[in-house]
């Protein structure tokens, strides 16, 4: 079963720098289907759920401050192996390491202070995607 969904977030830097349309275009251009889309202000509770594996890290407060710093765009895309494809399109976590041609490699750079500003989040597995869709689109799983 390779037909699947992915949760993507355009993070506050991506929205503030006007990359939303380009990011949606890259996903659509590949032929994946945009299933849901919204602009939201994240809450601390959503971020604790979304980053549940990182909550105890010393840099969690940096991540939280970053993700609360402005509106984000949440979207669901679907298609065969969309998770693997979008992870490749997203690029490495650290923008300095992210290959040119990837979203992070094209729109992000490293800064010496605060959280890693890397423009987008993309789910890394079917399990993560379904869990994260429940956090950002609770109305769809009701
Ligand atoms: P991703 O799947 O590539 O987004 O990376 P992870 O799931 O490992 O981490 C989630 C997010 O937490 C990253 O996109 C970064 O914004 C942040 N993050 C991860 N690792 C670190 C770190 O070592 N230091 C800091 N400051 N932020 C981190
Ligand atoms: Mg991740």
Automatic annotation (TrEMBL):
Pfam families: NDK. ATP binds at residues 11, 59, 87, 93, 104, 118. It is an enzyme of class 2 (transferase). Residues 3-141 form the Nucleoside diphosphate kinase-like domain. SMART domains: NDK. InterPro entries: NDK-like_dom, NDK-like_dom_sf, Nucleoside_diP_kinase. GO terms for molecular function: ATP binding; metal ion binding; nucleoside diphosphate kinase activity. Its cofactor is Mg(2+). The active site is at 121 (pros-phosphohistidine intermediate). Keywords: ATP-binding, Kinase, Magnesium, Metal-binding, Nucleotide metabolism, Nucleotide-binding, Transferase. This is Nucleoside diphosphate kinase. It comes from Lacticaseibacillus saniviri JCM 17471 = DSM 24301.
